[in-house]
Structures are given as structure tokens and as C-alpha cells.
Amino acid sequence: MPDVRGIRIFVIDDQPVVCEGIKTILTGSPGLKVVGSSSDGNDAIEQCALTKPDVAFVDLSLSGLAANAVTRELAKKDIRVIALVDTPDAVAMHSIIDVGAAGLVLKSDPVETFAKAVHDVMADRMFQSESLKRVLALGNPGSPTIDAAVRPLTPRELEVLKMFADGNTTSEIATRLALSVKTVETHRKNVMDKLQTRSIAQLTKIAIQCGISSLNS
Fold first, then answer.
1. Which end of the chain is more exposed for a tag (fewer CB within 10 A), N or C?
2. Region class of 192: left (phi > 0), else alpha (psi between -120 and 50), else beta
3. Which residues of the chain have a pLDDT value below 70?
């Protein structure tokens, strides 16, 4: 759960100007609290263990310990990771989603995008900047059997998958389907188990690639 004083955020980027700029943007956003930053992946993992952020922004092109490795470790600690993208690359973006990233933001996006990304991932919604959606929609060429992956799902599970991928929260899905929150959570767990995923971001990626959901919503 987020701290009562605000959602706790950590920023990881090896470009000092970018790092300070993002910290300034987030510090000025109501309900958000920047608890630290680092330019090094290994140091960031250690600092996050101490500062216990809810969300971490991770530079996709991080030098040293790669962004994917940092993301994988932070995701294990239930820290929601938002990748900071400099030059859009479909393969790199899909790769970081595969290891647990919950969102993608272009570094040059409008300032309000960063706070929105934080609130979306905290609500268990995958976030992609509008400017990155077209690139992300190119898909992952390393997943040729993705359609087969959803075949074990029941019709209800497919419906729940689509609704999560479209950006609905658990409570919103429960209301729309006239189900209890607990039932929706059970469906989500079953879907994630069957698709061998660990995050809503990964579910969204699969739904898009299968044509179950669209990035246009």
C-alpha cells in the first residue's frame, strides 16, 4: 500500500539532467513523494530496499546493470516499474514488459504524463505514452505462438482479460460484470496462471497481440 504521505517514487537514470528533471516534475505533483534516485542499477536496487518505493522509473537504456535486470529485481519486491524511453524501440519495450515493467513513458512527453503513469500503474493499469503506442503495437517478433496461449482461457476469463487490458480496474470490472471484487480477482489470478504472466502489463501485451484488445482505447 502507498505511504499515507503519498505514493513513494524512486528514479533511476544515468543522465543527471534527465534524472533531476523527472524528480522535479514528480515532486511538484500532488500525492507523489520522491524518496530517492540513482544513476547505477546495482546501487538503485540497494537503495530501493531501504527506501521502499511504490513506483520506480527506470531508464530503458541504463548503462551498467541493464534496465531489464534492474526491473526484474524490483518487480520481485512488488515495486511497479515504469520504463523511461529515449529512442522508441519495439523489441526493447516488449522485452522490459516481459520482465515485469508496468508502464512505458517517453522522456520527452508532456510533464503531466509522468504523474498519470504513476497513478495508472498504482491502479493496476498498464500505462503507455500516446507517442509510444504505435511502436508498441508492432508486436514482439519473438512470440509467434501468442494466439495459442489464450486458448486455455474460458469465455469469462477472456472477457476479464480484455477489460484489464483496456485499462479497467478490478472494481470497475466487478461493477460492469455484476461480480464481486473477489470473483474478479480470482479470474485475474487464473488468467495470469494460465498465461504464465506476472503483471497487468504482460496481460495487456498478450491481449493486444492476440487482437483481444486495442491500444486505441
1. N
2. alpha
3. 1-5, 137-149, 214-217
